[in-house]
Amino acid sequence: MKNRLAKIFYSLAAVGAAIFLISGCGSKKTGAVDTIKDKGTLVVGTSADYAPFEFPIVKDGKKEIVGYDMMVAQKIADDMGVKLKIVNTEFPSLISELKNKKIDLIMAGMVSTPERRKVIAFSKPYYKVYNVVLVQKKDAKNFPTKASLAGKQIGVQQSTTQEAIARKQLKSSKLVTESQLTSLTTELKEGKLSGVVCEKAIADNYLATYPDKYAVAKVKLVTPEENKNIDIGIRKDDKDLKKRIDKVLTKLEKSGQLDKMFKKAQKIQAENK
Ligand code: ARG
Fold first, then answer.
1. Of all atoms in ligand 1, which is nearest to the CA of residue 161?
2. Which has fewest Cβ within 10 Å: 33, 77, 122, 137?
């Protein structure tokens, strides 16, 4: 009897030890970089309504999301030796998608505000922005001051720094929010809005693509320092991934490739409008 119990005990112990060994000793936690390498794919979330950062084009009959962010994303994927997958969603839901692990990174022309820093981490900056008011070409000279926009319908993309800036600085205007920036710029073109608050880099793109439709108003908005840096959104726990990404960004910046990629994205947009 004793012997039989001992036998059972030893075989259970052996099974336990085997499980322990197979599962990699149970203790060592793999980092985010290793997890991505194991998957073989880096999943980047974006909101493709933001040329030249991210926008859709049709290539060989297939819709594809391209832009500055996607070029930088490809470099990060290449650095880890994995494939890149772009997930397109609306800007206001990106942070929860990241937290719920539906995506590995946010690359959506996203500014690293103090509020966002409370919930996620960010890479070092890879582009600088400031805000302007995009208007119809015919109104180019009509809005020299904030007061001149009083009572006017002004569009801002929901949950963006533009919304926060407009709520503070254009208090006497009527703000209209949409989850996609492209809906607002279309409404502006159709005369349903008097202006759209957006970053200069985005406004420039509309001016270059539709020179007879849009202009930048004379009115000056203040862009707070903390709303100027476009960074990559990363989960707070993924410290190893942040380190790796910052290294890639430093390299791309020093070699002048960031600048080149931005210009290339503008060119692709102009050719595919
Ligand atoms: N830079 C602004 C922000 O971080 C707007 C970004 C909007 N991005 C987009 N892909 N639509 O709030």
1. 12
2. 137
